[in-house]
Amino acid sequence: MSIQPYPTSSWGHGRIAIDRSNSDESSLPEFEAFDSVTPRAPTTQTISVLGVDMHAADNKRLHNTSKYKNSNLIVRRNNEFFITISFNKPFNNQQDNVQIELLIGSSPDVNKGTYIILSIGIEKITGGWKSRVVEARGNNVTVGITPDASCIIGRFRTFVVIVSDFGKQRTQRNPDTDFYVLFNPWDPADQVYMPRETDRQEYVMNDVGVIYNGEFNNITTRSWNFGQFEEGVLDACLLALDAGKVPILYRGNAIEIVRQGSALMNSQDDDGVLVGNWSGDYSIGTAPTAWTGSPEILLKYARESCVPVCFAQCWVFAGVLNTFMRCLGIPARVITNYCSAHDNTGNLKTDIVLDEDGKVDRSRTRDSVWNYHCWNEVYMKRLDLPEKFSGWQVVDCTPQEISDGLYRCGPTSVNAIKEGELSYPFDAKFVFAELNSDVIYRQSDKYGNSKIISVDTAYVGKLIVTKRVNSNAYEDITSTYKYPEGSDKDKQTMQNAERRGVPTRDYLPVAEAGVDIELQADTIKIGDNFKLKMNIKNQTSQTCTVSATLTGSAMYYTGVTSMTFKLENKTAMVKPWNTTNLMVDVQAVDYMPYLVDQANLLFVVNGRIEETGVSLSTMRVVTLRPPELTIKVSGTPRVGKDLLVIISFRNPHNFILKKVQLRLDAPGLITTRMKSYEQILPGGSVQYTETITPQTPGKKVLIGCLDCAALRQVTNQLEINVV
Amino acid sequence: MSIQPYPTSSWGHGRIAIDRSNSDESSLPEFEAFDSVTPRAPTTQTISVLGVDMHAADNKRLHNTSKYKNSNLIVRRNNEFFITISFNKPFNNQQDNVQIELLIGSSPDVNKGTYIILSIGIEKITGGWKSRVVEARGNNVTVGITPDASCIIGRFRTFVVIVSDFGKQRTQRNPDTDFYVLFNPWDPADQVYMPRETDRQEYVMNDVGVIYNGEFNNITTRSWNFGQFEEGVLDACLLALDAGKVPILYRGNAIEIVRQGSALMNSQDDDGVLVGNWSGDYSIGTAPTAWTGSPEILLKYARESCVPVCFAQCWVFAGVLNTFMRCLGIPARVITNYCSAHDNTGNLKTDIVLDEDGKVDRSRTRDSVWNYHCWNEVYMKRLDLPEKFSGWQVVDCTPQEISDGLYRCGPTSVNAIKEGELSYPFDAKFVFAELNSDVIYRQSDKYGNSKIISVDTAYVGKLIVTKRVNSNAYEDITSTYKYPEGSDKDKQTMQNAERRGVPTRDYLPVAEAGVDIELQADTIKIGDNFKLKMNIKNQTSQTCTVSATLTGSAMYYTGVTSMTFKLENKTAMVKPWNTTNLMVDVQAVDYMPYLVDQANLLFVVNGRIEETGVSLSTMRVVTLRPPELTIKVSGTPRVGKDLLVIISFRNPHNFILKKVQLRLDAPGLITTRMKSYEQILPGGSVQYTETITPQTPGKKVLIGCLDCAALRQVTNQLEINVV
């Protein structure tokens, strides 16, 4: 029963006008005559509006939004804010009919929550929004407005309307009276309510964090400037939603914001914020390893009219998505999973194919095990699911697989993953596979026939970590995702998963060798020669002769190998109940020419027990440690006083570092600074000095990052306390 | 551990090569040398292939695919088919290493099921496909091949490969050996297994059906040519998947085919098959009411390089989606829901807004109740859901609302809808609202304040029907979707739905009037004057005075009204426990100028009881019956003998019918014939004669349809038995 045409051929033209941009506006007439009345201007006796004061500073204090560097009012849902309207004469409740109109998008509609009409003096609830007169003094009336607990988030426009018998007289459009509504983790009625203040301070209010990478034996840390309060970041986040054409109507639902946000942070399919690149060649953009935080990226995206920013890998995606969530008021954190399977076919099997000689057959190995993978968790009530699946939800914006047409993943309940309850939206099976895949070593002959030679059920999803609340140490949250490997509960989870369409583990149990191979290495610096220890443990009562092939390759953190630099055969005779340690020498001259990105080496060993013909396989990633970047400050940091920051670096290698980028980031102190060096000679040093004048007291973090093609991710951070 | 680059910026360029077209091919070398061997041609002693016979006719009989008008082999999953390879000499199991390669798409990959390698003589299972030598006679070997029960569906290419020590010698590309693999409802291992043969004959094999429309008091019938076996239709269905870029990898999963199919039958977002149009102006295309079946539409789409076909409404969408499903082997049927809510905000409330005078306020009424709405059901195991949610699934390709970014809906389990279990994918809440919304009558004043005046909880989802198996009568399947209104189970369902995020019914119970208004009408022909009976039933012990406002509008079947042609006030005094019948005269001269599409009139009555001030509302749709189209044949229809079909029509109206289209469709006899008439004068007649020569015996249906702007959907059908 509507007179609008039905959608005929494209988005947004339709019976259901689909409004997909918070930047677009409709213009409302300043005078709107009522039907069947000859329009004429209101008489002079009528009350009129002289001004509207949004009380931005005062309201922001009440709404935990003072930290946003934005001159407009920012409020949170279901929390009252106050505005004062100045009239030309005292407001008379009996005579004057005054309405406040709050609008969002270009086709505001009372039925859709995009057009809120509140009457002053009449306590009335419209679409869940409440208003009341708090004070009337002289010609001024102060009104308290409480947004609905599930209202649309974004930038609203404010109008005041005088209603007479002839029509409506509206105030002029004034951007100063625009205000933003955000999710409210402080309010029990909000979908993203988070009960503890310490949690909210970390997961919503903390604008700097730590992301873990490296490998699970050697976890490394990098600080990240989330910068959700930096000038322009909130507008950039809303712009990303507009660029992704997310209907305004859906923007009150955190599930929708999270799901679409996971699609919009990557450039695949929808010109989202970041272009993923794992090729090793980042020359036409910024290397993923070179960034120090999100604001630089989001502001570049907004400044350049939504052209995707080059380049990102998983921790950059996760860092920026974290900013997006916290900025809009959704509690969020960055997670690292060691090691993370990327299983092409969703069959919970990650195949490593070896050739007849036991070498890794790079052309036949399609799946990969990421050394680590970063994703995010967001905290919310899942109103669409049974109650036990509320709480932390996985969301992953790194473009890995298509979910229902777009590159996106989640939100999916962490509790559901743990129980193997994979039927519920969204993408639970993919996340489950990242955490629970088995590594299958297959040997293949030249005709393409392959057989399984060994299976490792514990390699993937060994350790899942996130930054601890109010600390930079990591918290092991593996137990929130998984029951202990092999426990009854774990078996129950695997059975549930199979009942929900995860393929059963259909390979036969591999013959028990009774012999184990293990690879060990210490912490090693880039450029060092080192020894890799191969321990062969014979747990049988027979002597065994093991002939082993070790393949050493340079590897991206995604498990994709670039070059094989070492191939060595070793044979050992191991006595019953004994362990033999073989040493493999690894020389810098061998690996240095092939190092890529984060300087990972992958060693795969394939052994054969001569006496029984049984095969053994294992693999080990060694992450080499880069040279140090030092950050120092001069004297005690004080508010209003100049502080000197000195970053220095010495090239310890015997090769020239070319086109070096050095970044200094200091959330709450300065915006990201970048300095380029054409080259740094072998043994040469650079020193970069910046003067900062702190404006507010408290703990701050200085983040430094040096990056060039030959040496990635040389990072450091320094915490300072401004007094 | 792959050497391909990771996806960098767009679909399909990526580490995970995403192959989205069955039409694209890779070319394979005719000779492929093994690594580390100097390539040279095979020696003359080697066996070579002279030809491959796909035994299309014989295999098709075994696979229930003989009806497809397609010269290539068409098989179903997990059912063996036989091909014969002719060699230049007898095949020697010990000496000769011969492989059959089956490929689909442009980047065939053994790990993805897009590249099947079967060895002759070695009984081996590759990716679930099986092969065995059935017979070796002379130089010929007949091989039995059984596709995996969950393999990819589509068009495969066949190669035979001779493997020598030097490399692989491959047969040339030959389109004659291409074959199609379809879903297999006959096989218990297939996801779409349907146990009963009578059901399979109806829901997979029946190529003509009946779609119900009209209104629930006056159900009308139109035959529809599904034509899934017609020449070119299978290719058109696969082309639609290609046009929609559905990854080949996903095409073995019926859930994915159904979900993407529901997006691809409409042109919104993805240039799918049909353009929806409910405007009343279809002059630049074919009116939705003028079509007689799917083949004409699908073949036009394919012929015109995937330019969307103009125009469709719900039954056309449902008819074409039904063809798509049955053609690919997924059991499917067309459903009609009387009346169907289209609730803009997903809140289970459909608002009818009346103005101060009790007239329908067309500008404020945003939701609508469709007189009827057609969707489809498909039958499948939902491996992703708990077992009880397998069986019939709702899928709807009429573009109504966006689901996860695209216009699509489903599949969603009918059982889950019935239980109010709305957490499971896909779009259960939307379907639930179509069936269970309440109609809320609101009265609104000019300031925009509105109050609820009455609620009808039973108007929507009253009756759900589909064609009965092996009959043209309808089957009432309401009980598969809903428990009886008001039963304990029904209440439980509503509670479950609320727990899954459906908003609670938050309006207060409306004061019980004790007085009912009902509207009644007989079956009425277009152009007739008629009487509408308004029955006012007083079930109280007080006399009541009812003043009622009746609004009569011409209406599209979507509930969208075009013009108000009648507005009448009536007053009646009704004695206690008595019924008063008021008659309202409706004159043809009043409604004829405004009739649209399927000639529906909507009457809404709003009454007020003077004594108590209580309001009453009700509405009633009257579908006017069009003049008759007659279809006759000459003599007894016999195979091979000319049969004369005569369609005639007389214009009974006093106005000229302009630009008249007349269609004759006869599935299995002829392709759709269309005849145009510039005009038919008042009282004038047309007669159209077509000569048909039946090729096969059995029951056939002749479908006729006459359509023009002033008179829509004049249809008839005649069943004949060819002997």
TrEMBL record, chains A, B:
The active site is at 314, 373, 396. Residues 306-399 form the Transglutaminase-like domain. Residues 1-26 are annotated as: Disordered. Its EC number is 2.3.2.13. InterPro entries: Ig-like_fold, Ig_E-set, Papain-like_cys_pep_sf, Transglutaminase, Transglutaminase-like, Transglutaminase-like_sf, Transglutaminase_animal, Transglutaminase_C. It holds the Pfam family Transglut_C. Residues 1-11 have a biased composition (Polar residues). Coiled coil: none annotated. This is protein-glutamine gamma-glutamyltransferase. The lineage of its organism: Eukaryota, Metazoa, Chordata, Craniata, Vertebrata. SMART domains: TGc. Its cofactor is Ca(2+). It comes from the Eukaryota. GO terms for molecular function: metal ion binding; protein-glutamine gamma-glutamyltransferase activity. GO terms for biological process: blood coagulation, fibrin clot formation; nervous system development. Belongs to the transglutaminase superfamily. Transglutaminase family. It comes from Culter alburnus (Topmouth culter).
